[in-house]
Amino acid sequence: MGTDPMEVATKQAVKQKLAQSVAFMQQTRNLSLAFLYGHSIVLYRVGLAFFLVAGLSSCGNLASSGLNGAGLKFGANVTPIREIKAEQKNQATVYIQGKVEKQAPLMKQWAYQIDDTTGKIWVVTNQKSLPEGSEVVFKGKVRYRSIPLAGKEVGEIYLEEE
């Protein structure tokens, strides 16, 4: 069996080139997968955030819910403080929004005077240490405390947070 040295050299050269090509393709594949792996997580997170925001905003109409930046209006059903009447039988549930003007610690609760530019009202709540000047929203029942003084009624309405 005579093997031509030229033929053997050619086969070895082809095998060597093939091995080099396979090694180069594996390195390229590993690099591209590593590159895509690092970025696929970022794309996954961005995509997830997009679908989350899109889903939440499609659940309701932001304009009709009262969420807007101008005037810091949180809800369309916020009652102006001037419309809360000092009736002794009034125990309606209302939402108010305003700034904390004053605070007073009670036994197990806190009382905050809230000002919404239409009036002021005290709110009794379990929330502690709301800073003065902070914008807040409360939901509570309207309460009236009768205070007869020298034959006159000087009672006051307040809100008890629910």
Give the averaged pLDDT, no decimals: 77
**What amount of the residues lies in strands?**
25-35%
What characterizes the major β-sheet?
5 strands, mixed, barrel
CA-based shape: rod-shaped
Would you report the number of β strands?
Answer: 7
What does this structure look like?
The protein is an alpha+beta fold and 162 residues long. It has a 5-stranded mixed β-barrel with strand order 1-2-3-7-4. The chain has a two-stranded antiparallel sheet with strand order 5-6. A hairpin with a 2-residue loop joins strand 5 and strand 6. It is rod-shaped, with a radius of gyration of 36 Å.
Descriptive tags:
alpha+beta, 28% strand, 5-stranded mixed beta barrel, rod-shaped, 7 strands, 162 residues, two-stranded antiparallel sheet
Task: Spell out the blueprint of helices and strands.
Elements: H1 5-58, H2 62-65, E1 93-105, E2 110-115, E3 120-125, E4 135-145, E5 148-149, E6 152-153, E7 156-161
Parallel strand pairs: 3-7
Antiparallel strand pairs: 1-2, 1-4, 2-3, 4-7, 5-6
Short summary:
The protein is α+β, with helices and mostly antiparallel strands. 36% of the residues lie in helices and 28% in strands.
